[in-house]
Amino acid sequence: MRHFVSLELSRVAELPLRPLLYAAAAAATAAGVYYYLNNHGDGERTTLDPADTTPTEDPVQMGSAESDLVEPDLMCDVDEGSVTQTDSTASQTDSSASQTDSSASQTDSTASQTDSTASEVSLSEAEEKYELESCARLENEKPELLSDVNALQDSVQELKKELSEARKRNDELEMECNKKSQELQLLQIQHNAIKTHLRKKYEEERRAHSDLKPQYSQLMKTLTQTQVSLTKAEEGFLIAMHYNDENVQEVNELLRKLYHDHKCERMRLESEREILQSQYKEILQQRDELLMDCKREREAHNILKSQYDHLQCWESVRQILQSQYKEILRQRDELLMECVREREAHNILKSQYDNVIETLTHNEELLKYFQISLDEAEEIYWPAMEFSTQLESDLSPAVGGRALGDTQSVTR
Description:
Blueprint: H1 2-14, H2 19-39, H3 42-45, H4 59-68, H5 72-76, H6 80-106, H7 108-113, H8 116-243, H9 249-299, H10 304-369, H11 374-411
Helix pairs in contact: 1-2, 1-4, 2-4, 2-6, 8-9, 8-11, 9-10, 10-11
Coiled coil: 135-190, 259-293
Region (Disordered): 45-69, 82-126
Protein name: Coiled-coil domain-containing protein 18-like isoform X1
């Protein structure tokens, strides 16, 4: 009995990977043998050596003592699956032990008739057979349990790696989020600066438009006055034609020439007015384009490169506006030159008017020479003089007003 228990305990020590399983199997085997020996009664006990009458230790206590000798860290490696399998194996061992007890009770009558040597031989053979079967069964279960432990360890390692990678990704995402927020703040600051600059530029353009508008109104007023003066001149010309149609042919020719010159001047002024209107429309169109560009610049504030391109575009627009402003100044100078030329033309007309006066004087002398009555001469002479005076008074405000408007535009 001691030899059998020591043999089982030695096998348990040789296989430390499944200590609970082997301890349970050893305890069940020892219990079965102990029960079998107790059922044989005194017949078997008389065959024992008196020296072997020492009290036998409880096999359950021996199994628990051996299980206490197992290393604690090996006990912790056993998972729930292995414990369940150990319980099932222990139950199978108990069932086999009960079967062994039943077979032992059946052969009790025959074993009592045999001698002690035959019973010991059969008992040793049964023990060896049972031991071989239990060892084979445990060896078959050992690789599966080892693979389960390895799989669990691998899964734990993979979970640790995934956890570390997740933490690393979380740190990277936090850093990227902080970086994006800083970039967004920088872009917002740049957008506010560009918005302020564009607003100032728009105010400057609007003030320039407001300055050009009264100039245009002044030019239109001057043109209207010129048209009124021309209308009056036409009326005077018609009156002069009515009074001097038969008597003063040369005066009529000069007046026709003067009317033609005034008509040409009016056409020229009309063309200049149309040019100024087209320029004003172009300025309004450019202002609308600038407003559209400002809106597009406000919408495209999230893209830094496009902001830079729009700034370059605004610089080119500024250069274009500067060139247009120079062109307007050049046109103003041309208008001043035209005013000087018109003043010269007025001087020429005045000299022609003096010639007309001389002609009238000569005609008066001719009338005296031909003994025309004084009353008839006065009837012809004084209306002509009044018409000339009225014509001179009409031409002087028109030319003077235009020269005054040009002088004011030059001063501005």
